[in-house]
Amino acid sequence: MLTQRIRYAPLLDKVVTADEAATHIRDGMTVATSGFTPFGYPKRVPQALADRVRRTGEPMKLTLLTGASVGDQLDGALARAGIVDRRFPYQTNDDTRKSINQGAIKYQDLHLSHVAQEVRYGFFGDIDVAIIEAVAITEDGGIVPSTSVGNSPTFVQKAKKIIVELNLNQPSGLEGMHDVYIPADPPARQPIPLVHPSDRIGTPFIPTDPEKIQAVVITDIPDAPPADAPGDAVADTMAGHLVEFLRHEVKVGRLPSNLLPLQSGVGALANAVLRGLLDAGFDDLTMYSEVVQDSVLDLIDAGILKVASASSITFSGRVLTRFLSQLDKYRDKIILRPQEISNNPEIIRRLGVIAMNTAIEVDIYGNVNSTHVLGTNVMNGIGGSGDFARNAYLTIFTTRSIAKDGNITSIVPMVSHVDHTEHDVKVIVTEQGVADLRGLCPRERARRIISCCAHPDYRDMLSDYLERAEKAGGKHTPHILDEALGWHCAFLKWKTMKPMALQPSRKTG
Amino acid sequence: MLTQRIRYAPLLDKVVTADEAATHIRDGMTVATSGFTPFGYPKRVPQALADRVRRTGEPMKLTLLTGASVGDQLDGALARAGIVDRRFPYQTNDDTRKSINQGAIKYQDLHLSHVAQEVRYGFFGDIDVAIIEAVAITEDGGIVPSTSVGNSPTFVQKAKKIIVELNLNQPSGLEGMHDVYIPADPPARQPIPLVHPSDRIGTPFIPTDPEKIQAVVITDIPDAPPADAPGDAVADTMAGHLVEFLRHEVKVGRLPSNLLPLQSGVGALANAVLRGLLDAGFDDLTMYSEVVQDSVLDLIDAGILKVASASSITFSGRVLTRFLSQLDKYRDKIILRPQEISNNPEIIRRLGVIAMNTAIEVDIYGNVNSTHVLGTNVMNGIGGSGDFARNAYLTIFTTRSIAKDGNITSIVPMVSHVDHTEHDVKVIVTEQGVADLRGLCPRERARRIISCCAHPDYRDMLSDYLERAEKAGGKHTPHILDEALGWHCAFLKWKTMKPMALQPSRKTG
Lengths: 509, 509
Prior knowledge:
The structure is a homodimer of 509-residue chains.
Chain A: H1 2-5, H2 18-22, E1 30-33, H3 45-56, E2 62-65, H4 75-80, E3 84-88, H5 94-101, E4 106-107, H6 115-120, E5 129-137, E6 143-145, H7 152-158, E7 161-167, E8 213-219, H8 233-251, E9 262-264, H9 268-275, E10 285-288, E11 291-293, H10 294-301, E12 305-310, E13 312-314, H11 317-324, H12 327-330, E14 334-336, H13 339-342, H14 345-351, E15 354-358, E16 361-363, E17 368-369, E18 372-373, E19 377-378, H15 385-391, E20 394-398, E21 402-403, E22 408-409, E23 411-412, E24 427-430, E25 433-436, H16 442-453, H17 456-472, H18 481-484, H19 486-494, H20 504-507
Parallel strand pairs in A: 1-2, 1-5, 2-3, 3-4, 5-7, 7-8, 9-15, 10-12, 11-13, 12-14, 15-20, 16-23, 20-24
Antiparallel strand pairs in A: 5-6, 16-17, 18-19, 21-22, 24-25
Helix pairs in contact in A: 8-9, 9-10, 14-15, 16-17
């Protein structure tokens, strides 16, 4: 059986325990792994390393690069063991996040499409060890990834040593779903020959120099699917607004009747919004995104979505089982690519992707905060949202109008951190409605966002800020600078942004 | 003579006065013109329209689209006549800026590469009239642009009516310098077949339906070249830092010895920085930028720069004369393209452009403000800086460390407006030095920017802010939100950001 998974015979002799494999990792190294969302990441060697460091007390500080977020057996295990010195480019792990915000892990969150090429450009120094989860090794030593591709092709290309985690829990039927293309670097780069989401332009495996594979670890640990997102009336309302908006764009001739390739951010809200397309009357849809979530499989099963291109699957347990047990049915409908290609500006702009991402907060001028809570603590990171938002045909951000039981308004005078600028953001959707910002000057954008998207509890306060700012001075982007972040300051003091917290008498108290 | 300029004979009968041509323009219309920097813009018809409106007192409110900034005979004349209701996508005109900041003109500044496709997508509604400056009309009615291309190809394609300003002051020898390529729109768009800055992929004229040309106005008004920028020791110092940085990148193997295609923003500082390459020892350079400034012609004349691709020339009077009198010498070394191509993300990323743009202010975490003074009044606009900064091989921003006689520090705790986020900015250069931000977490970026780039007068204050913010709470991006914009507030009150203005006793006064 193993010879069907490891088809390059010399590597059969490289099968070792996770502990043995982990001996290749030493203090000060840069380790790069597979994984994009909690899918397709190595699950044994990182844990073995963490256990060893705990046992021996040896000094161990690593730079860890991944595709994007990964599962707890990697990010959590290493963070809890205090092994991670630097972390790129994205994370969603509780312990990693805590360590970052405590200053213990140095984290720079990066556009996901940038990472692979910047590794090749040498911006991150050498990659000492790559750990890649695989479903098979081909006759020539090529690595067949599992449930995500991420940055693995470039990590494999650049790493001095490679450790393969061959995961027998991942069905070998995943082979054939991947399309691995690595662009040449400037000045030799050529056009990426992809003109439709269904195009295959590379190989179904990662071309690998098998001499670099130092160890193969056999595992059977499943991915860590997110919980099944419960139904959510607010998200359904937002999905309804979005569908209505898209229908209108088709009606006035700004979108074809089968829309254009869809991109959707990761998470429960994004998943719910996509689910809204199930009974929207659209047909012959395509997706060019970074992940394939539950609702995408539903859309495929319903015959509405013809093809989905991404870098990873991100299914809940229930849907994952459905997917893994019917791989033949999905093999020509789901394509997994390197994130450098799934998130590539060249292709996103060429295809005319409709980008739908979620925001933490949005200001009245349309600037979006996707990463920071109250300007300081990072939540996850920018991920791929910037790759898509900047280059899309239409850039849409969704957010609930309020958070924390209504004590936070997601529409504020000035966001406390900017990840997507006013220049990039075309449409804002909350459960209150849709603000189409195209062609509007900042003051008009402010009025439209307040009236269409802000929660009624906060509309008067926002309008009051805008009107006083207009009277105070310049009228292009009116602001009262010593109040602009006052709403966040009020929340820090009184745990609410509600009017009482912003009353001048209390404010100076 | 005129038959050599107007080679499509039926159009000889369309030659009219500027006043007659301007009768095509009526209240409520969207007018789109040629022009990118004060080069290649229509100079007679806008003035005739402004004069008529002043004379008749007729109601007249227009939406005005251009390539980028244009000369005063267009932007200034229409702004002063109160004719402009909306203005896209960029401006640098004193009277237009004043009207925007007074709330009289509604201005949305847009990424320059986005405009043409969004016009075709229908995001700006119909284009009623296009006014295009030309040096000739071909045998088939094609328009040969003058000293810029801008958005003219798409404006010509989409406009209901076209007015040509045939400018006899512009040498007919400009013909052959342009390369006009209009991508198809999604889902039919194909890879843009440009792999080197010298590639020609289109036609040397704008394909035009001559039936749409309603009027040809003969003019002889020269472009409005900017003043010859005087020598500037501070800019020379910055250029020195930049050259040293680039040399280091070559030395460590992160850039080839002839670098990669250069992009440089518009203006005196950008021009001075490029001039620094004259005696830097580099050779065989190329440029893929949006404008060709004085120093570029110097680099070409010195044999250092092989080819410069842009959307416009922007020479001072002295250099313009040199250029226009030796067009044959420059015809194979300078290529003028639609800004949709000169600034295209696909090509910028493929070629690996080194992007060098100027900032108004930069914060300690590397966020860049390129557009707003004190968060509210717009200076010019984002222009093409975002197109390049986001997609470049290396993204560099330059700024003087202080402004207004030292009363403003360009390095602040938090910028008052974000145009380029921390995720995009790799290197900051001031006359104090270079901060290479690659691979650094926010706190490390802050320390490096303060120590390498901030003016010594402000370093202690910035370090003090950072240290207190670190103690106050979250350690990923430490901020004290009620102080973060306090430096700008201090300037608004006391016209200085210097320490005394930020003393707590005075601050609460």
